[in-house]
Write a structure and sequence with these properties.
The chain is of the alpha/beta class. The chain has helices spanning about 40-55, 70, 85-95, 100-110, 190-195, 215-235, 240-245, 250-260; strands at about 5-10, 10-15, 25-30, 35, 60-65, 85, 125-130, 135, 140-145, 155-160, 165-175, 200-205.
Length: about 270
């Protein structure tokens, strides 16, 4: 495993992992720090906690951007602490982690050597982000926000207004197409537009390198184009094959998005 810290601004860092091309965040204030996502299992969470202690000794709370295994199953290594998440993320994790474990196993089977996807009972978040939440880390404010449905129905982003750094979770992807496994393709562009409204200087995706806002705007435009194709399929104006041929994303990504279509009466 290769990992490194990248300082985006004074006291705002991202830790980049070769494994899964994962990005996790750290925002440090004068009195406390906030960890953005915790990796895939308690062992990986412990590695992250050790790496954080090499940067700061301040007490840490945790925010989970969403409930996919690679972002949340390392939380036990940070306990006891406050864990923030959207209510639907909390509900997902409160079911016991079967979905997250299945995700971990599916990813493990593709690895050489296989990842140790032992069953992990998730930590259930105890603080909820139903509306925007402002945290005071001591001389530094951060905003926890749910911009709407997109990659999941419970995505949370973390905004550091004094530095212009935005941790977007998997609402933004660099180095690969967005993942539509649990997505809402018609809503996703609107959620990204909400993030861009903060006018970030730097956007940290859940996977990939930190980005300029221009990249995020271009990806939002591609998501909008795909959403329009999805609407055309729902209206029987296009068949799925035609939508795939017109899509800005690779065929597997587009088929995954089309598979998630929900008619308005199903919402």
């Amino acid at each position: 495993m290769t990992a490194r810290w990248v300082e985006l601004a004074d006291g705002v860092l991202v830790r980049r992992y070769e494994e899964l091309d994962l990005s996790v965040g750290l925002v440090i204030g004068d009195s406390s720090a906030l960890v953005v996502d915790t990796r895939s299992d308690p062992g990986q969470g412990a590695e992250l906690r050790t790496a954080i202690r090499e940067v700061t000794s301040r007490p840490c709370s945790v925010v989970l951007t969403h409930a996919h295994f690679d972002h949340c199953l390392g939380t036990a290594a940070f306990m006891p602490t406050t864990v923030w998440a959207h209510p639907r993320c909390r509900d997902d994790l409160a079911r016991g982690g079967a979905v997250q474990h299945a995700e971990a196993l599916a990813w493990s089977r593709a690895q050489r050597p296989p990842y140790d996807a032992a069953l992990v009972r998730p930590v259930v978040p105890d603080r909820l982000i139903a509306d925007d939440v402002e945290l005071d880390l001591g001389g530094r404010q951060v905003l926890l926000t749910h911009p709407g449905r997109g990659h999941t129905d419970h995505d949370v982003a973390v905004w550091s207004p004094d530095t212009g750094v935005l941790f977007a979770g998997d609402l933004v992807e660099q180095g690969a197409d967005p993942d539509f496994t649990d997505a809402f393709p018609l809503d996703w562009p609107t959620a990204v537009t909400e993030l861009l409204g903060m006018t970030p200087r730097t956007v940290v995706p859940g996977h990939g390198d930190p980005l300029a806002a221009e990249f995020v705007a271009a990806q939002r435009d591609d998501l909008s184009a795909l959403a329009d194709l999805c609407r055309a399929v729902l209206a029987a104006e296009l068949d799925r094959g035609a939508a795939v041929s017109l899509s800005p994303f690779a065929p597997p990504t587009t088929f995954a998005a089309l598979a998630k279509l929900r008619r308005p009466e199903m919402e």
